[in-house]
Amino acid sequence: MFKPLELFIGLRYTRAKRRNHFISFISLASMAGIALGVMALITVLSVMNGFEQQLRARILGVVSHATVQGSGGAGIRDWQALRQQLEHYPGISGSAPYIQAEGLLSQGQRTHGVLVRAVEPALEHQVSDLAQRVIAGRFDSLTPGSYHIVLGAELAYALGVSVGDSVTLITPQATLSPVGILPRLKRFTVTGIVEIGMYEYDSGLAIMHLDDARVLFRTGDEVSGLRLKLQDLFKAAELTEGLQQRLPPGYQAVDWTTQHANFFRAVRMEKMVMFVILLLIVAVAAFNLVSSLVMMVTDKQSDIAILRTLGASPASIMGIFVVQGTIVGVIGTVLGVIGGVLLASNIETLVPALEQLLGFKFLAPDVYYISDLPSDMRWRDVGNITVAALLMCLLATLYPAWRASRTQPAEALRYE
Q1: Which residues lie below 8 Å from residue 255, measured CB to CB, with a gap of 6+?
Q2: Tens-digit pLDDT profile for residues 339-397
Q3: What residues pair up with 168 in beta bridges, in sequence order?
Q4: How far apart are CA 326 and CA 317, in angstroms?
Q5: Where are the domains of the chain?
């Protein structure tokens, strides 16, 4: 016999046809529970990763990876020279100026507060994908002096306007007149409607040309800042820290991890909580494993006693049942990993097929901006889930195995 005694007997107990079929059923239920728990964990975390990736892509398609602006909210005058300087900085793939202000849009009896963003259409494609998000009209219709405007989809719906309609923009700046102080306002023509996929922007974003904003808000040659696109957005914090040291005095660099820190922190927290909650499924299956092993120890009392009289040590007896419980846990975990990887990799195909079969849309497009179930399976998550499941299964075997090692041969064989 080339195998260790504990491994040989543990495998024999696992393969043997048990006299008590109920114990066998409990073991199979534990194995199935572990497999389902692991599969659910991998699938749910992959879907949450997919949602996080989609949200990040949609947000960063509007807000840019990093921003250079004046300290204390001041504007930037010589932005052309600064932009040429930033083009040679390693890690930056594009830059574009912008002016950001607040205003009030009105059309008829309807009014809505908006965030006005003035851009240079010829440069904007370097830092955002706003042009690709236009669902009506054209983004390149924003030309100097035309006073054209592109609205978010929800904002256009709230105002009841479409391409070709006119809206009035009221700015916080006031104009002195013989009759007193009057708010400054300008009439714009809607030439585009953009859908970002985030309600915050779709319901409150108005985009115009940079030159029109200079006249309307009286900023002169100043811009609010420069928006930057980075080659690796996950190194934004590191890059902006280095960039800050090389910028002239009076400028500050801010990256997307700072601007939207609370949002992405909440997403990560939700993912962690979901991981813990779904891990309880594996814990319940591991508890069933404890029950099946305890019953197995009770059923094998005479076998344990005979092994002890033949010279088996308590550690060997304990090893036998650890091996048996671990095998059940390993098989369940492996089946769960295989099922989870297959399901997470094909969920974007399976869900539409299931929706077509049932005639029901799980995420209705008129309610949810992300109407599909995106999946981003990460092998690091798969590895963490596998290790956690195996550790729980191993811990579940310790008490029944310890109880088996405490069996006294004389007591167990007294009535045999």
Answers
A1: 65, 66, 67, 236, 237, 239, 240
A2: 989 988 888 788 777 777 777 666 655 555 555 677 888 888 899 889 988 888 888 88
A3: 106, 187
A4: 14
A5: 5-57+263-413, 77-223
